[in-house]
């Protein structure tokens, strides 16, 4: 293939056949990108040359002093070495935070990290003081007891939300004044109970008595706890079968079995005083939007008054819609952490969370909560 290019291929004294031959050779050279095994003569800046020995397309640099390799036809890929290496070399490395540039691998704040760096892992162990109160995933649940009028009052055992993942509970008495309350008390597992708990549970004893003929009063116990995930919000209502009077209400973004053994059949509801001959159990599962609306109602703008618990808002502003008949939740929910895990060979071993490695992954236990036959499903409506 021609690699010869004649610049002066026409003049008045030239032989026409010679000029036409030179023109034909010029077109052939351009058509083939001066393809050949050796470097073309009479090079100029911007000139193409297809090096048939190396099977590489090359371009003459601006100074007409060297060839720049552009495309490797043997491997059908571009050649970046000559084209962008200078750009990379000149790029700013490790610039100040917020300034664009290239980063070298390292551990400081302005350096990049490798794709397998532990800092990118979802299972990495948090560093000391990295989990703040705002970032710790906690929630709050509450249980109430309605006191009775008379010298003896009434009291009962109730399962606290959160169980072994809970902090110490707080107690609140609703005092309407005018001497209507005589006494209100709360104890963590006060004395003996007639309920035979077959699973470990965090139980509180609530007692209330009033001396007012038309007022019954309510005592509340709330507890903040490290939550599972709050996949479904649960409201349990214990009430008298005949009078329909509410005896106790429970609310939490987790089922009572969460943190209390993790076995729904052993802790199916929070009421230790449930008697199927006297009581009926109602379960309400409000939507996230409904809970958010109720939560807004708990905020009291008056700086001299404390905010209310969600259970207070439910008790004061809502009632059971007797005509409703929603379905029991069928979604698997988190009930706790596994008691055992599998090692690299697939063998079951005891889960010891004190010595977990940074790459260990623990999947929480999820279960579909079975519906006890004696529980009714209802919805709430505003009073």
Textual characterization of the structure:
- There is one protein chain.
- The protein is rod-shaped and about 135 Å long.
- Residues 190-194 have low confidence and may be disordered.
- The strands form five sheets. An eight-stranded mixed sheet has the order 8-11-5-13-12-14-20-15.
- The protein has helices at 16-31, 81-90, 288-297, 310-317; strands at 48-51, 56-60, 67-72, 77-78, 138-146, 148-149, 154-159, 170-173, 181-188, 203-210, 218-226, 234-240, 246-252, 279-284, 318-321, 333-336, 340-342, 348-350, 365-367, 375-382.
- The N and C termini lie far apart (96 Å).
- It is built from four helices and 20 strands.
- With 383 residues, the protein is of the alpha+beta class.
List the topology elements:
Blueprint: H1 16-31, E1 48-51, E2 56-60, E3 67-72, E4 77-78, H2 81-90, E5 138-146, E6 148-149, E7 154-159, E8 170-173, E9 181-188, E10 203-210, E11 218-226, E12 234-240, E13 246-252, E14 279-284, H3 288-297, H4 310-317, E15 318-321, E16 333-336, E17 340-342, E18 348-350, E19 365-367, E20 375-382
Parallel strand pairs: 6-10, 14-20
Antiparallel strand pairs: 1-2, 2-3, 3-4, 5-11, 5-13, 7-10, 8-11, 9-10, 12-13, 12-14, 15-20, 16-19, 17-18
